[in-house]
Design a protein that fits this description.
Blueprint: H1 13-16, H2 19-26, E1 33-37, H3 40-54, E2 61-65, H4 70-87, E3 90-91, H5 95-100
Parallel strand pairs: 1-2, 2-3
Length: 106
């Protein structure tokens, strides 16, 4: 598992929800769980599937907007920032999209 996922990833739960790995990392001190989100529903899913089930501390949560171009990022970024503020979670920008848009190989 490269990073924890939510249903919005489009993957089957069996492919992204690895209980042993989540349990291990949830009990480590210097761990951050970064989730790519696009809506408040994604946050509810995160709370239900990860925070409540594994007792992950809110200080270990970071959100990143699910945007693959600059236009989408400009619309979604304020929404995700507000979701972070409401829950005292950290925010991670999609700097590569903000700087280079959809350009690859940079």
């Amino acid at each position: 598992m490269d990073s924890p996922k939510l249903a919005n990833s489009g993957l089957d739960k069996v492919d992204y929800f690895k209980e042993n790995a989540i349990t291990f990392f949830a009990n480590q001190n210097n761990v951050t769980f970064k989730f790519v989100v696009s809506s408040e529903q994604d946050c509810f899913d995160l709370e239900t599937l990860y925070l409540n089930s594994f007792k992950i501390d809110a200080t270990k949560i970071m959100l990143m907007p699910s945007a693959d171009d600059q236009q989408s990022l400009q619309k979604l970024e304020p929404v995700v920032i507000e979701l972070c503020k409401q829950r005292a979670w950290r925010y991670s920008p999609r700097l590569h999209i903000a700087v280079w848009d959809k350009k690859t190989g940079v």
